[in-house]
Amino acid sequence: MTNTEFIQRAFEAKGPKILAGFSRPLFHNLAGFLYGHRFDKAGYGGMIRHSEAGMVYVWAGQVPTDGVIVEIGCYGGLSTSYLALGSERKRARIYSIDPFDSDIDKQSRLTDHAVSLEDKPSRQEVLEKLRDNGLANRVELIEGYSQEVAKSWRRRIDFLWIDGNHDQAYQDFMDWSPYLNPKARVGFHDAHPRYGYPQVAQDVMKAFSSDRWTRLEHVKSIITAVSRT
Ligand SMILES: C[S@@+](CC[C@H](N)C(=O)[O-])C[C@H]1O[C@@H](n2cnc3c(N)ncnc32)[C@H](O)[C@@H]1O
User: Fold this and answer.
1) Under DSSP, is residue 96 helix (H, G, I), strand (E, B) or coil?
2) Can you give the CATH number for the domain in which 25 is found?
3) Which of 116, 128, 165, 184 is geometrically suited to a Cys-Cys bond with 180, CB 3.0 to 4.6 A?
């Protein structure tokens, strides 16, 4: 199956898949059950589903020792927490970018309004939550915008998790791809026409169409792949 065929099939798959079917549903649901309930979703104002959280945890655990994870779009820190917990044994560093509650006028120009700008969690609030859960020491919260932070970025990345402005997921992919290590993983959230945003679905199709990308996986609104090089 080509990457394009895989994604097309993911977009067309219907109904809940518990045990069998396309793209390892049994494993995803098991991961969701075992690892995807660690944090209080409502308390975090979180956006990821349990099976998605479980797999974020699993993928984070697959980075090399002392690896680097970059998250675009932290919001209240729910996915950040799964990234941090999942990569604990690898002692990975997590860099999570979000404007948090800074300069609301700028946010209203530069974000897609997927979340309410009125009561966004502050960087400090997210940091405290991470501290309460013993996760803050490996996480750096960067107050800013992915496209701006990318310009001065220096580290190689092992797992790039894209969940920021849904109108610019492809731009995020292009801006951050030069920093990926060989065999790095890229994951797009909301990349499914039914569970996510049509724009991100188009973007993921474009991003993963080349042979560079292998081991594609589809979990609800997530499409992820691993770089061959
Ligand atoms: C859907 S929420 C992220 C949810 C979070 N990943 C989770 O699962 O809990 C998207 C976040 O990305 C932020 N955002 C929007 N544009 C961004 C950009 N260019 N760079 C970084 N973050 C951005 C939004 O303000 C919002 O907080």
Assistant:
1) strand
2) 3.40.50.150
3) 184
121 lines ligand 1 (CB under 6 A): no
Give yes or no for residue 149 CB within 6 A of ligand 1: no
| Segment-wise mean pLDDT, segments of 10 residues, the chain, 229 residues | 96 80 92 97 90 98 98 98 98 98 96 93 97 97 98 98 98 98 98 96 98 97 97
Which atom, in ligand 1's list, is nearest to the CA of 77? 9
What integer pLDDT is reported at residue 45 of this predicted model? 86
What's this model's pTM, rounded to 2 decimal places? 0.97
Q: Is 48 in the pocket of ligand 1 (CB under 6 A)?
A: yes
Quick check: 37 and 61 in contact, CB under 8 A? no
Structural tokens at position 60: 């984070």
Amino acid at the residue 1: M
The contacts of residue 132 (CB under 8 Å, 6+ apart) are none
Domain count, the chain: 1
Paired residues of 188 in beta bridges: 162, 223
- How far is Cα 125 from Cα 77, in angstroms, rounded to an integer? 9
